[in-house]
Design a protein that fits this description.
96 residues
Length: 96
């Protein structure tokens, strides 16, 4: 299923900047960055639980925000893209 993950991590201090890097790094391991703090991830149910647990352990719930949007398996018709940064095929081949 396609899961959209967004976060807003407070970077008022060095600890916050470190949290931001850790959250970002963890998201990169699971999906594709589509905007600064927005990732599209193709995950199964167990991967969602694992990633959610990891991210919740990294953020400060008093200062940070984390959102998961579950777009499901038929996400093709639910996502529209306009403007720069051409879209990518989420389940296609990704060359690094």
């Amino acid at each position: 299923m396609l899961v959209l993950i967004t976060y807003d991590v407070s970077t008022q201090d060095a600890i916050g900047k470190r949290r931001l890097r850790k959250v970002s790094k963890e998201c990169v391991n699971y999906g594709q960055r589509v905007q600064n703090s927005v990732f599209e991830c193709i995950l199964d149910a167990s991967q969602v639980l694992l990633l959610k647990d990891k991210l919740l352990s990294l953020i400060d719930k008093e200062k940070d925000s984390l959102r998961f949007y579950y777009l499901g398996n038929k996400y093709d018709t639910k996502v529209e893209h306009f403007g720069i940064k051409s879209s990518y095929e989420a389940e296609g081949i990704l060359m690094v």
